[in-house]
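Quick illustration, no need to memorize.
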Amino acid sequence: MTEPLYLHPAWERTISQRDLDAIKHRVERGVTELFTVLWVATNYRNDLLITILIRNNEQEAFTLTNEPMALMNEAEELCRETFTYHVPPNCIMPWTLIFEDALHYTSVWTHVKKA
């Protein structure tokens, strides 16, 4: 059984119905990894925006505070940024990781991981 979807209050206020439907559909199909990539976009500053699902199947909250996350190409680290987020217990939460000025990695990265 998959954990229920949790939306941070900021996401509840801003998410489009189309994006919410896509996220719900992905959660219904099952999420087994700690970090699952949903989609990738770029912004006007050439930042790479990677929207992920964070799965917390534990009884306690999962909190990262200024923790490094790396954008990877197989075993090679391409870049890293620090992120802070709090995932309540027993849920799946979407979040967007922003890798500054990383547009040039768009076609070569393979995954993200806690660095």
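The mean pLDDT is 92.
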